[in-house]
Write a structure and sequence with these properties.
heterodimer, A: alpha/beta, Rossmann fold, six-stranded mixed sheet, four-stranded antiparallel sheet, 10 strands, 27% strand, B: mainly alpha, Arc Repressor Mutant, subunit A, 2 domains, two-stranded antiparallel ribbon, 2 strands, 61% helix, transcription (chain B), Transcriptional regulator (chain B), transcription regulation (chain B), Tscrpt_reg_HTH_GntR (chain B)
């Protein structure tokens, strides 16, 4: 379980997140939605332990989310940073050397599914293939929490589809929870159990996707338009 | 996905879709369904949602899960026949309701339906 209690995050004198309290139950796929600048990425970074709250607390499985939380959380930033001279396979080995839970066999499988060439240098990869590489490196870790910042952003429909299929194939909801931010809400709607909607750094709503369909007969994107998110 | 609309829970829409495939004979009694994960991949759908759709159809007696083997179309023809009748009734009810709302008489509905079906049968 991920738990945020009265979390506020400020950068200098700018408040990015305001008094957020929420829980994310295990075994679900949850989307973090909201406009640009609503605080989605910051929320994800706080859970990953790469950034600390100005006030309030963030815990993952009861432990405070700091740098050490990386042992139960696999985090993928929006703009992945790789050593450009590495090949795909070298990037894989590097990831395996950093994380004991990195499953090389699983990485190999995902690499094949994503049609990544293990001998290609990262600097020679297209944007779409970099996106796929990042999915492979993130999903091959056997950890209870997977966090992805805009995994579909800026990729063409075919790449987006293969990434979505990769998520379904390689995230095991019996033991894992996937939390992701996305602008392409309509594209991931059928993938989500629930969503967290942010607006100007405040928590606007958390809900079950099916609950929204049942109670308001709206897609998330339609609901967002209606409530001016 | 555009194939699913927001007016009804996605798991029920998937359940309806599977049900139609069974009733139309596209899926036969005793046939094995794709695993939850494969079904999820096919429709880019959350495995938890697929699980709910399967459970719903199991509750109706249309699907059966055999431990360690997977999910199958029920061999019990009586449940399928029952479901087929129920679905027919629902569709007719809906159609008649709309027609009567627009002021058509029973005789008009019947003759209109007959005319239409004859036309379809002739390959129109």
């Amino acid at each position: 379980m991920i738990r945020m209690t009265n979390v506020t995050k400020k950068y200098r004198n700018q408040t990015v997140l305001k008094d957020i309290s929420l829980t994310v139950p295990p075994g679900k796929i949850i989307g973090i939605v909201g406009r640009n600048g609503s605080g989605k990425s910051t929320l994800l970074r706080l859970i990953s332990g790469l950034s600390l709250p100005t006030s309030g607390s963030v815990t993952v499985n009861g432990e405070t989310a700091n740098r050490r939380i990386g042992k139960v959380v696999s985090y993928s930033a929006e703009l992945g940073s790789f050593y450009p001279i590495f090949t795909v396979r070298e990037a894989m080995r590097f990831q395996a050397s950093q994380f004991a839970d990195f499953n090389l066999a699983k990485a190999d499988e995902i690499m094949k599914l994503m049609q990544l060439d293990p001998h290609m240098k990262i600097k020679a990869l297209s944007k779409g293939h970099r996106g796929r590489l990042q999915i492979m490196l993130t999903l091959a870790r056997e950890v209870p929490y997977i966090l992805m910042d805009e995994p579909l952003s800026g990729l063409d429909p075919m790449v987006r589809e293969s990434i979505v299929k990769g998520m379904i194939s390689y995230v095991d909801l019996k033991s894992q929870t996937l939390l992701m931010t996305s602008h392409e809400v309509s594209e991931i709607e059928t993938l989500l159990d629930g969503f967290i909607a942010l607006h100007d750094g405040s928590l606007h709503r958390t809900a079950d996707v099916e609950e929204l369909h049942e109670s308001e007969a709206l897609r998330i994107s339609e609901w967002m338009k209606k409530t001016y998110l | 996905m555009d194939e699913f609309n927001a007016s009804k829970p996605i798991y029920l829409q998937l359940a309806d879709r599977i049900q139609r495939q069974i009733l139309s004979g596209d899926m036969k009694a005793g046939e094995k369904l794709p695993s939850i994960r494969d079904m999820g991949i096919k429709y880019s759908m959350n495995p938890n949602t697929v699980q709910r759709a399967y459970s719903e159809l199991e509750r109706q007696g249309i699907l059966e899960t055999k431990r360690g083997q997977g999910t199958f179309v029920s061999e019990r023809q009586d449940r399928l026949v029952l479901q087929r009748d129920k679905l027919k009734h629902e569709q007719i009810q809906q159609f008649v309701h709309v027609m009567q709302e627009m002021g058509y008489s029973v005789a008009e509905i019947l003759s209109g339906l007959e005319e239409y079906l004859n036309h379809v049968e002739r390959g129109g």
